[in-house]
């Protein structure tokens, strides 16, 4: 059966199950008559679903500092493990989630991925009410939150099929920023929800997302579409993996996105450990600033070049980290908090600028139309690989804080290592993509 919605041209039809046949956003007539409205509807619902995915992925970042008040006896090392593992699982899931969209359909997979969020949230509700639970079981429950991290990859892959090249950057920027804001939202809402009545009711942190996940699944089922002609060739990942620039960019992206997700996860615990009298609800400002700065970083990169903006972002990140170290030595909360806000701002801008670099790097030196098309596919593969590798920073930073605390009694040593890494990443970006005598010469990357 063919369902033809009002205004649909004969070239674009929607079959049962909301499969779009003949979808081509590059076709001007189709885009102006019905395409833009279809794409916008799918984008809005995708942002909502991805927002929830990020929120669930970050859920343990704000739950962990509250566990002692709920009766859990945990060491600093164990607490950082609970923060780090969801990031590692989410990073691992990003590649298979990307392939799920062309296999199952973007609308169908959005329904599935939204319903999968019921698993980590339901498990959290069960676990946080059992203070006698073994650490191994608690760690396994925390790892389930990683399914929320995979949502980013499938959501970005899905929306990329709906928009023409000339509007794809803006759409993907909005999609990414909307998802990132989920981290800030959960860190703002959970501390308020769990103390709405007497005592700490940690199970509410999971319960609050169960109806939202169901709502996202229902809305996706009713209003989103699958693109029949969407195709992701697994060979593009193989081609991208053989390119050295894929791994250089992935290394750089650990510094930007990895810092954003790693510091977002650890920030509430750092505040509780270093300044225990301060309310945890202000931790959300860090993730919020980083999320809002992401599209601004992309805009600056369009004007100045992604590599130059990325280098500037690393310089600001290093300065912010050094100021945080000085704040710890002085015991100054305002300086510590302000330093981290600057750090988050730079990580967000760096996320946007690195994503701007990828197509520019692979487009450089392209020949005919066939060569440009091939390079675009390799760039898409690089986006997927870099997104997965970069997310590993969400595991490395909390584990670095744990090792530093265990060895020295504080996080200062880990912060100095991070400053040094920012220097290495900035130097790498300059040497490969900005230096005039490098392979890219005078090109603006």
From TrEMBL:
User: Which compartments is it annotated to reside in?
Assistant: Membrane
* Chain segments annotated as transmembrane: 43-67, 79-97, 109-127, 133-153, 174-199, 205-224, 245-263, 275-293, 305-328, 334-358, 378-401, 413-433
Query: Carries keyword rRNA processing?
Result: no
Keyword ATP-binding appears in the UniProt entry = no
What membrane topology does the UniProt entry give?
Answer: Multi-pass membrane protein
Instruction: Print the keywords alphabetically.
Output: Membrane, Transmembrane, Transmembrane helix
Where does the source fall among the domains of life? Bacteria
State the family it belongs to.
Answer: Belongs to the major facilitator superfamily. Nitrate/nitrite porter (TC 2.A.1.8) family.
**By what name is this protein known?**
NarK/NasA family nitrate transporter
Q: The organism's lineage?
A: Bacteria, Bacillati, Actinomycetota, Actinomycetes, Micrococcales
């Amino acid at each position: 059966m063919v369902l033809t919605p009002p205004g649909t041209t004969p070239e674009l039809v929607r079959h049962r199950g909301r499969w779009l046949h003949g979808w081509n956003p590059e076709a001007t007539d189709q885009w102006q008559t019905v395409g833009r409205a279809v794409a916008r509807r799918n984008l809005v619902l995708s942002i909502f679903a991805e927002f929830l995915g990020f929120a669930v992925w970050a859920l343990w970042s704000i739950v962990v500092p509250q566990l002692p008040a709920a009766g859990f006896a945990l060491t600093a090392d164990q607490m950082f493990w609970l923060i780090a593992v969801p990031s590692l699982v989410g990073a691992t899931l990003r590649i298979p989630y990307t392939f799920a969209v062309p296999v199952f359909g973007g609308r169908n997979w959005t329904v599935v991925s939204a319903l999968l969020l019921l698993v980590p949230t339901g498990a959290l509700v069960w676990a946080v009410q059992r203070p006698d639970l073994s650490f191994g079981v608690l760690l396994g429950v925390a790892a389930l939150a990683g399914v929320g991290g995979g949502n980013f990859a499938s959501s970005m892959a899905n929306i990329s099929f709906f928009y023409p090249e000339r509007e794809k950057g803006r759409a993907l920027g909005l999609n990414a920023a909307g998802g990132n804001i989920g981290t800030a939202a959960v860190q703002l809402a959970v501390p308020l929800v769990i103390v709405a009545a007497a005592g700490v009711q940690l199970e509410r942190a999971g319960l609050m997302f169960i109806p939202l996940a169901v709502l996202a699944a229902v809305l996706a089922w009713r209003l989103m579409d699958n693109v029949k002609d969407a195709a992701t060739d697994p060979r593009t990942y193989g081609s991208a993996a053989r390119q050295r620039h894929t791994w250089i960019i992935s290394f750089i992206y650990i510094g930007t996105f990895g810092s954003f997700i790693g510091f977002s996860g650890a920030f509430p615990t750092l505040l509780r450990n270093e300044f225990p009298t301060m309310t945890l609800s202000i931790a959300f400002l860090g993730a919020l600033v980083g999320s809002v700065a992401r599209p601004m970083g992309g805009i600056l990169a369009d004007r100045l070049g992604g590599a130059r903006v990325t280098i500037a972002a690393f310089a600001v990140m290093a300065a912010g980290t050094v100021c945080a170290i000085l704040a710890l030595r002085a015991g100054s909360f305002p300086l510590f908090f302000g330093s981290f806000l600057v750090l988050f701002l730079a990580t967000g801008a760096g996320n946007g600028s690195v994503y701007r670099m990828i197509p520019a790097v692979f487009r450089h030196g392209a020949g005919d139309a066939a060569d440009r098309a091939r390079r675009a596919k390799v760039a898409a593969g690089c986006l997927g690989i870099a997104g997965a590798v970069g997310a590993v920073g969400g595991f490395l930073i909390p584990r670095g804080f744990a090792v530093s605390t265990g060895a020295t009694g504080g996080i200062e040593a880990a912060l100095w290592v991070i400053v040094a890494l920012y220097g290495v990443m900035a130097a790498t970006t300059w040497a490969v993509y900005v230096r005039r005598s490098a392979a890219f010469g005078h090109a603006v990357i």
